[in-house]
Amino acid sequence: MPNIKEAFTVKEHKATDEYHIFKGDFEVDPCNSVNNSICGAMAKSDSKKNIAICLDEVEARKLLAKYGRKVCANCIGYLYKTI
Ligand SMILES: [Zn+2]
Q1: Does an H or E element contain 55, and which?
Q2: What band does 80 get if pLDDT is binned at 50, 70 and 90?
């Protein structure tokens, strides 16, 4: 069973235009996200905008497939390793 309480938020880095993934928690309504991206290379304060918020694992994978190379490889690697 997947952990349905884990939420994913995707943010665009203001300097590189690369998308990074932030983990969060659905127990907070609607969801929250931690201060640093999964890969550790981006902080919330580096965000230009949110690409998507409060995704579950399935939605996150669809979004990664859609955006492909725009998304940080390290963040993607983590997501596929843990799901
Ligand atoms: Zn990243």
Answers
A1: strand 47-55
A2: confident
At 72, which amino acid appears? C
Q: How far is the CA of 37 from the centre of ligand 1 (A)?
A: 6
For residues 10 and 57, what is the distance between their CA atoms, to the nearest angstrom?
12
Distance 22 CA to ligand 1 centre (A): 8
Domain ranges of the chain: 6-82
**pLDDT digits 0-9 by tens, 18-60:** 999 999 999 888 899 999 999 999 999 999 999 999 999 889 9
The candidate with the shortest Cα–Cα distance to 21, out of 63, 1, 29, 58, is: 63
